[in-house]
Write a structure and sequence with these properties.
- The protein has about 160 residues and is an alpha+beta fold.
- It has one domain: Mannose-Binding Protein A, Chain A (Roll).
- It contains 2 helices and 8 strands, in the order ββαβαβββββ.
- A hairpin with a 5-residue loop joins strand 6 and strand 7.
- The longest helix has 13 residues.
């Protein structure tokens, strides 16, 4: 049986389970520090009533990146975190997993690059947010190999935790 453990931490404090939570615009964003593939992360979010985070607007992305910086998450998460976009169906055509329009991007300057050195059949098809480069780093989007294990961000829309006065 699956359980969703959400600790109320509106300030974004770290929970004892290695998760960080933040309410943004009524949605609850939960960062799970346990590493999984993109598909396993997507499945886990879905089983718990959410989906991988859809950072489809500049305002939402800015607020989320501010949360990451405020919590100094790069000290805890060094290889990026899965979020909810991919180009699995058609190379170079990225889509959000919830069908939200692809109107805004926040790619790192050399991305997406579909590097296929480690997977010549598929290349890099799944979306992550990572802090790069090592000198003067910023949180931005990147495409990466879907099979890689890394933390992920689940989004729970209109979550009651976020709508309590």
């Amino acid at each position: 049986m699956k359980y969703l453990l959400i600790l109320v931490a509106l300030s974004g404090a770290t929970s004892v389970y290695g998760n960080w939570e933040k309410c943004i615009d009524g949605d609850l964003f939960v960062i799970d520090s346990l590493s999984r593939s993109w598909e396993a992360s997507k499945t886990l979010c879905s089983q718990n009533g959410g989906h991988l985070a859809v950072l489809a607007t500049e305002d939402l992305t800015t607020q989320f990146k501010q949360f990451l910086n405020d919590e100094n998450l790069d000290a805890h998460i060094s290889k990026g975190m899965w979020i909810g976009f991919n180009d699995i169906q058609q190379e170079g055509t990225f889509t959000w997993i919830d069908g939200t329009a692809w109107d805004y991007t926040d790619w790192f300057r050399t991305q997406p690059d579909n590097n296929n050195k480690r997977d010549s059949c598929h290349g890099q098809d799944c979306g992550q947010i990572w802090k790069w480069p090592r000198s003067n780093p910023t949180w931005q989007w990147d495409d990466d190999y879907c099979f890689k294990s890394k933390p992920h961000v689940c989004q729970y829309e209109s979550h009651q935790t976020c709508n309590t006065p």
